[in-house]
Amino acid sequence: MLRVSRVRILGVGDLVVELRGWSREVSEPPYEYLPTVSEVFSPCPTHRDSFLRRVNGVKVNQSAALNVGRVLHEAFLAPFRYVQRGEVGSLVDGLAELKQSLVNNAGDLAGIVKVVYDRASAIALSLVAESQAAPVVVEPPLDGALIGFSDVIKPDLVVGLIPVEVVVTDNWDYLGRKELALAAYALALEAMWGNPVNYGVLVNINPRTGGLTSRVLILTDDLRRAVVRERDTVARIVARGDDPGVAPKCPETCPFYNHCRGGPGDAGSK
Question: How far apart are CA 235 and CA 35, in angstroms?
């Protein structure tokens, strides 16, 4: 997973697609509102969460599930941040000290944090060890406005020109949403650098076990057009104040669950 040799292979050849980051359909959105990547590709099927937050001004507490995701997400990225900083001294010792700090602050999640951090550290060290390593950047700020998104959008990692998205979930439907996020980041990279980006990597962390899986995605025209379609849907909802209605099925971990269902959601309003 995330091997530099693999990244170099993915950079060879071309993918025949019509929609690139420099395409007019991408660079000229029909609405003034420029949504964030996270709101466009949230788990909500109808995007009512964007309506509630942006139009109605609803504020919610962070759910327990979202907090778990935040902690494990950072446990994965932390070793890459450390390596990117290029700290002086033993890389292995520095990573070990960072691990202990994260575990000490993880509370009940300490065991899972250890698992996630160890896997991520192994990947980060392997990237450093490989000769002619492609650059690895953690959460680089990309110009989202070039593709009709908010001014700054941040993929979790970019290896060479390959975007990497890390998601903490056991909801398979949500993984499909993150595939679209990868395509959005690829469009932004294309718009900024003028080079085609044909692949992305999706890393999934199981929130119950810390187990990691990864998939290389071909960023097809279908994915790219779905990005534009979803972007325009959210922008229209916010710009026009259109309530898209409650989704047929809502994940109970959604922080807006109570507002749509009035049931025992994981988060309340404030």
Answer: 6
